[in-house]
Amino acid sequence: MSQLSTPPTPADAGGFDVHGIQQKWQQRWEHADPFRAGSDGDTRPRKYVLAMFPYPSGDLHMGHAENYLYSDIVARFWRHRGYNVLHPIGWDSFGLPAENAAIQRKADPVQWTSANIAQQKSSMKNYGVSFDWSRVLHTSDPEYYRWNQWLFQRLYERGLAYRKDGAVNWCPFDQTVLANEQVIDGRCERCGHEVIKKKLTQWYLRITDYADRLLDDLNQLEGFWPQKVIQMQRNWIGRSVGADVDFEIEGRAEKVTVFTTRPDTLYGATFFVVAPDSDLAQDLVAGASAAAQERFRDYLDGVRKATDIERQSSDRPKTGVFLERWAINPVNGERMPVWAADYVLADYGHGAVMAVPAHDQRDLDFARAFDLPIKVVVDTTAPITGAIPVIELDDDGVPIDPGGDSLDDLNPARTGIALAGEGRLINSGALDGLSKRTAITRIIEQLEASGRGRAAKTYRLRDWLISRQRFWGTPIPMIHTEDGRIVPVPDDQLPVRLPAVEGLDLTPKGASPLGAAKEWVEVADPVTGELARRDPDTMDTFVDSSWYYMRFLSPGDTTQPFSSREADKWGPVDFYIGGVEHAILHLLYARFVTKAMFDMGMVEFTEPFSNLINQGMVILDGAKMSKSKGNLVLFQEELDAHGADALRVALAFAGPVEDDKDWADVSTTGATKFLSRALRIAHDVDSSRDVVWAEGDPALRRVTHRLWADAPGLIEHTKFNVVVARLMELVNATRKVIDTGAGATDPAVREAAEALTMVLDLFAPHTAEEMWEILGYPPFVGLVGWRQADPTLLVEDSVTAVVQIDGKVRSTLEVPARIEAAELEARARADEKVQRALGDREIIRAVVRPPKVVSFSTK
Ligand code: ANZ
Q1: From ligand 1's centre to the CA of 490, what distance in Å?
Q2: Averaged over 302-322, what is the pLDDT?
Q3: pTM score, two decimals?
């Protein structure tokens, strides 16, 4: 319950005791716990409805208000449809905000977190969200993170968790490493500071093993997830299909492999480029002259300062150094100079490329900057369908102009534009005349036959770097022994709990503060009993949230992370809602972990979320709300001023779920008026529960039954605002019968009021419960099954329309009462009697007044 004193009822509430009703029903829900998911014996079909769980920093904001409103509408809807609904909530409570509060205000992260959770929980209850409060979890609870550690061990056993050194993303401000997904445009996702590369030994999860499945299974989600999210995931995984080609390097025993998407252009490769920051570059330059080595070292110093984005930007002049080494083109034996240049990245493909300047823009820019040869091997002017044309070449190997844009006109050496398109091969020995596509297949066959290459795929996706040098997270359950072994903490010693924060200096300084907790860090090697050290790093909090939806299924289980039996019953999540900011990180990790759990036999499904919805943002006057701009609409203030129901109705009515909602256009006052009119209808109903509805006003009954017919589909398609509009229509129609029709004793008034109450429950549950009680029913309307529409009441009224020609009635038509003008005119023109009366006269004017009159004038 609100700790604040009850504010006065809003003036426009028309005597409707908003806060009194709210408190009354919240107390009853608290007492009776009606929204708890049904247990084993429950035979109803099941739905698992989930909103992304919040981070407990401060109180709820308007974004939460939207998120939990929508999940609540859906959860309530399925209960009304006779489903056993699971609608749980928890907190994603590890992470930097708690740690930063601890550093800045000396707050204990445990206490800070639990105080914020308590506040958010009370706000959620005040907001009337029908969560199953028996399943609450928070990820900083040792009983939760114990299972993160357990999961980590299982992944480690399968080779899916591993440690390696590498150049990692490092945020100099937060003093911690970041996953690739947490670097946005070269900056730290959390603090916006520029990210640099640092060589460190870190823990990774091998998500790349799942790249193909993560990509291919997106097809299953088409139509069930927002297209935008599917596309962002596809791009992020970034699968490229092509070939690996092995090149010999003069004076070096091992070959160097490159990845190319265009093996068809192999004859056009004229030089070779390696990433300057790769081990390969170091190795190759070691065989060059002292001067070349010096030039290389200077170059590398500059390269280290550039971000990947800068390195790949096309408008940046190309730079590089010649390594005084030569690669041999495997198809024609030509010598190609080897360069180091920063447009080649060390951690993509193999960190080396065969450069084909005629057909790749980056290579062309480089070739023009350093005066390297350019050789056209695909004629992009040649048609690629139909018969293979005979291409005549001049002495330089350039085809003779057959008319139109000649290849000579397009010569990349002169135009500076690479020929990237389709075409037919030239200057390529036996491949000449083949289309690009056929040539790719052919050359891969040849490379494979000669053992000099093979079909290959490359991904943009990198393994998931999960270790963080911070205190407030799940300790990585590994032990480092004196002699350099790494030993997992045995399952029966889990959880590895965080030590108390007292006495620890949490200020970021590059290494985990846990390393300084001597008593915590020093342990006995579980195998030999000798002194060893715990791994001082903690896990990325995205590990915590990668499987929390499973823990809700058996949150108290002390023997396993979740019960597979419960997972079979409830999983996967039927409806998941949250912000689009999680399109890649959280959703990709959750999909990966679900697939890994599937492979371990823990779950029977491979995708965690069957349906996903991204809600828009709540903005103000066209701008994103933020503390610094001072344009925050505070959830608590709105709740106190208008009550939960008006806030919920106003938000639901504000527009489509996916759209941004400008608070300037949201009317809580209008919502309050609507709710007080609805409540007044319940009070006005003047008939008993057993009235015969069939005797009611047919027009009002039709409005009611149209609602019953349409509401389920509208809710399933998340058209919540349309349903609110339909409820407003029903309120108006009912009021009309009460005030100017047969009056409040009309059975149709009761029927309408009951329908209104049952559907209103999705949006304004406190008011709906109150109305249900006034209508003479026991609690809770939230559990009452919705009614079926009577099909005979859905048939539209028909009326008789007259058709006049030059002032004389020539025909009559039976048409629906709601017919549109165009349709009415079309029917009149097509009518047989009208056509006969018209003969060969031409209509020069039509006046159409739906539904009753059509009047034609003729020449
Ligand atoms: C020769 C070639 C000819 C290429 C041509 C393209 C066009 P996507 O599609 O993004 O996967 N590449 C390979 N490894 C690289 C690295 N570490 N850094 C920068 N570039 C690299 O790009 C694949 C293409 O990017 C590869 O195909 C390679 O250039 C280059 F007409 O090989 B290609």
Answers
A1: 45
A2: 84
A3: 0.86
